């Protein structure tokens, strides 16, 4: 929809009206074309202003329409008609002008923006390019280099920066539409030729700009094709006349539009929004559960996790009590938190927010906070002791949260006098950088507690996903099997380099062995000791390489025993030039160790190809994802996918593990899992999940229909 009115007798005002973001659906495009033609026809109208209702100019093309055949007038001729018009057209930009919204504004002769508005061409994040003239007009407005950067990254620009770049002509703190109307009246009668971007000549881009950008993108894009097409389109703007550049833009878009990557990225966009609408098996959901405001929070433990959480809370303007009993750790933690906050302040040219943090060694200082996040190391006895004390010290309506990455939230809740106020808030390291937050609800967690943790996550700028309570929750439960498979592949003949190369070619930022070296091999070692898989708790009556009745690889434990803990000790799965070194090199010592290990256990090394690496690592993880859905630990495949994309480096252009399974084909995933399960009967989790079988039996429905096959939650409310 778009509304039309006449202001001051001579100004035609067209308001886009398609809440919530005035996306350019076919109806809206039709209405704009019609209203623009009407304004141009009306002899009383001397100028036109285009704006959006409800404080938003336009969020771009309607992404929901991309899944079906496009109907209605296309954007390109509509924008061309505006630009070609003989009456000045001014875009009044409030809120956002993104994608097709900015392209519409670029077709206007002038752009006025509210100082809080943002503009950008984020199509690349959806696997596309700005194909309504954006790749051809923006470089003609800003010069090639800034346009290339904006289009290939999809970065949003705030109005003041947009003004500097020349994207907008004026920024105002007043009513943008009123300012635009006055402006439009003031330019009536002035020549428009120069204001038509399609007619502008481009100045020569710096030498080597496209080659350099292309090389950087190929390195960073991890197989994503849209950024490459964006470079090609902008290059066309710099080298071809406007019309030929538009043809190139259209052709490139045609190859992207139906690609699997575009589908995956658009799925990811909606998945990220759908997880905010959480629902629990007991019937509670985001629509009916109210969050409580958190004014004062506390964080217990100032290790890496605790520090990151403190910084995140302060950045959101929440006052924090940071508590740590170890004096040295308190001192180091305090120094590091303040250093990060000072760096933030420098970046934003503002005063540091360190006044919001109070550091203490006393738990009793937490008596008056609204919410506590415990972030001590993974020791159930220690955590229980803390929760018992918190239950007595904190005010009765304070929420008690744990940052555990795998331990039982119900067990912790049970030692408090308020199990309904206990939830897990599982941050990912470093917590002030990583986007993901798993909000873990226990058996007794109240809807209010879940809503408060989810709301707090949003305030901290996190992508929060509500998940059920089980060992490892969603992310780590799936990850465990992926890591195990990688270790088995080494036993069978692969090297860490081969496994990592296959995973990196798939699109992971880092292969699993490099990640393990980075985070430290001792992290998993501690967890395996707790689980009785290695160390004192092991039942040595079992045959070697078997634990708790199934196949087990002690490879990582053996490296830990040798003190090879990864980057910090300069040796792990790779070799580093010094402790703390970042550059992994193949380690001949490790290769010899693998040869000796195989010979000791009578294992014959065989050649393992990339397909097997991917299938064994990824399909086992995916199979566990189906089990998680079947158990109701995640409420839908989108939850699993959002967790993997935002917390585990799964390539976004592959949508997430469950989306990937859908793309590969569920029957193929099932068939390969059956094959591997037969080949490795001592690895029970390779047995295909009942849900996967059920979906295949039902004709492998597309991912958006999977929820219909999940067990329905029963409301206990
Ligand atoms: C073909 C020619 C080339 C052009 C290509 C393009 O323009 S491609 C497009 C390029 N543009 C982009 O990539 C911009 C994508 N959008 C955004 O970045 C943000 O939504 C925002 C900044 C506009 C608003 O942020 P916020 O935190 O205030 O709100 P929120 O994010 O929660 O969204 C609210 C609701 O609106 C929905 N929705 C939003 N946009 C679209 C859309 N374009 N379409 C459809 N729906 C859209 C969203 O799903 C959600 O729906 P729900 O869950 O309530 O049913």
UniProtKB/TrEMBL annotation:
Keywords: Fatty acid metabolism, Isomerase, Lipid metabolism, Lyase, Multifunctional enzyme, NAD, Oxidoreductase, Peroxisome. Gene3D superfamilies: 1.10.1040.50, 2-enoyl-CoA Hydratase, Chain A, domain 1, NAD(P)-binding Rossmann-like Domain. It comes from Denticeps clupeoides. Its main location: other. Residues 297-469 form the 3-hydroxyacyl-CoA dehydrogenase NAD binding domain. In the N-terminal section; belongs to the enoyl-CoA hydratase/isomerase family. Belongs to the enoyl-CoA hydratase/isomerase family. Residues 472-576, 613-702 form the 3-hydroxyacyl-CoA dehydrogenase C-terminal domain. GO terms for biological process: fatty acid beta-oxidation. This is Peroxisomal bifunctional enzyme. The keyword Lyase applies. It is found in: Peroxisome.
């Amino acid at each position: 929809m778009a509304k039309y009115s006449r202001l001051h007798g001579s100004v035609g005002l067209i308001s886009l009206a398609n809440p919530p973001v005035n996306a350019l659906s076919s109806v809206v495009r039709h209405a704009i074309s019609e209203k623009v033609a009407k304004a141009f026809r009306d002899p009383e109208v001397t100028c036109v202003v285009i704006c959006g209702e409800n404080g938003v100019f336009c969020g771009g093309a309607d992404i929901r329409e991309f899944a079906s055949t496009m109907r209605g007038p296309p954007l390109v001729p509509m924008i061309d008609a505006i630009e070609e018009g003989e009456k000045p057209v001014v875009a009044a930009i409030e809120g956002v002008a993104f994608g097709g919204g900015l392209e519409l504004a670029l077709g206007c002769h002038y752009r006025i923006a509210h100082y809080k508005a943002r503009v950008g061409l984020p199509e690349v994040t959806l696997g596309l390019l700005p194909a309504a003239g954006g790749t051809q007009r923006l470089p003609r407005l800003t010069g090639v280099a800034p346009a290339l950067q904006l289009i290939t990254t999809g970065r949003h620009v705030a109005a003041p920066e947009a003004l500097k770049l020349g994207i907008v002509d004026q920024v105002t703190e007043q009513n943008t539409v009123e300012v635009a109307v006055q402006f439009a009246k003031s330019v009536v009668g002035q020549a428009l030729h120069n204001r038509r971007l399609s007619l502008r000549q481009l100045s020569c881009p710096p030498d080597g700009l496209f080659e350099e950008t292309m090389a950087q993108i190929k390195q960073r894009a991890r197989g994503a094709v849209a950024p490459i097409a964006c470079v090609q389109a902008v290059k066309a703007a710099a080298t071809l006349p406007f019309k030929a550049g538009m043809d190139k833009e259209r052709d490139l878009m045609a190859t992207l539009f139906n690609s699997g990557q575009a589908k995956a990225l658009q799925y990811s966009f909606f998945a990220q929004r759908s997880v905010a609408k959480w629902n629990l098996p007991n019937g509670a959901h985001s629509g009916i559960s109210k969050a409580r405001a958190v004014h004062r929070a506390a964080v217990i433990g100032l290790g890496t996790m605790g520090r990151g959480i403190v910084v995140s809370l302060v950045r959101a303007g929440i006052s924090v009590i940071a508590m740590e009993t170890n004096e040295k750790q308190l001192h180091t933690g305090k120094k590091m938190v303040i250093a990060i906050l000072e760096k933030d302040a420098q970046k934003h040219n503002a005063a540091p927010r360190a006044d919001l943090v109070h550091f203490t060694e006393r738990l009793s200082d937490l008596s008056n906070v609204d919410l506590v996040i415990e972030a001590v190391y993974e020791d159930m006895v220690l955590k229980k002791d803390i929760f018992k004390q918190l239950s007595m010290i904190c005010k009765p309506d304070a929420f008690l949260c744990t940052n555990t990455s795998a331990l039982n939230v119900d067990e912790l809740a049970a030692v408090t006098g308020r199990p309904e106020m206990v939830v897990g808030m599982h941050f990912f390291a470093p917590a002030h950088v990583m986007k993901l937050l798993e909000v873990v609800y226990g058996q007794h967690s109240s809807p209010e507690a879940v809503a408060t943790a989810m709301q707090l996550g949003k305030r901290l700028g996190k992508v929060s996903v509500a998940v059920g309570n089980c060992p490892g929750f969603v992310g780590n439960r799936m990850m465990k099997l992926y890591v195990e498979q990688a270790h088995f592949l080494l036993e069978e003949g692969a090297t860490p380099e081969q496994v990592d190369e296959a995973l990196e070619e798939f699109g992971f930022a880092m292969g699993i062995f490099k990640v393990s070296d980075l985070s430290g091999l001792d992290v998993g070692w501690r967890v395996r000791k707790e689980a009785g898989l290695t160390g004192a708790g092991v039942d040595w009556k079992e045959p070697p390489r078997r634990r708790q009745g199934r196949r087990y690889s002690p490879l990582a434990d053996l490296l830990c025993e040798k003190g090879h803990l990864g980057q910090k000790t300069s040796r792990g799965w790779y070799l580093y030039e010094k402790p703390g070194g970042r550059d992994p090199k193949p380690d001949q010592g490790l290769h010899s160790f693998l040869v000796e290990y195989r010979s000791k256990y009578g294992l014959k090394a065989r050649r393992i190809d990339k397909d097997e690496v991917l299938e064994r690592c990824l399909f086992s993880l995916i199979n566990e994802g189906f089990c998680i859905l079947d158990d109701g630990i995640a409420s839908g495949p989108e939850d699993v996918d959002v967790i993997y994309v935002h917390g585990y480096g799964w390539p976004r252009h592959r949508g997430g593990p469950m989306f990937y399974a859908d793309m590969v084909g569920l029957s193929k995933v099932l068939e390969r899992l059956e094959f591997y399960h037969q080949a490795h009967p001592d690895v029970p989790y390779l047995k295909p999940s009942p849900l996967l079988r059920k979906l295949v039996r039902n004709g492998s429905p597309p991912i958006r229909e999977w929820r219909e096959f999940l067990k329905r939650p029963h409301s206990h409310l």
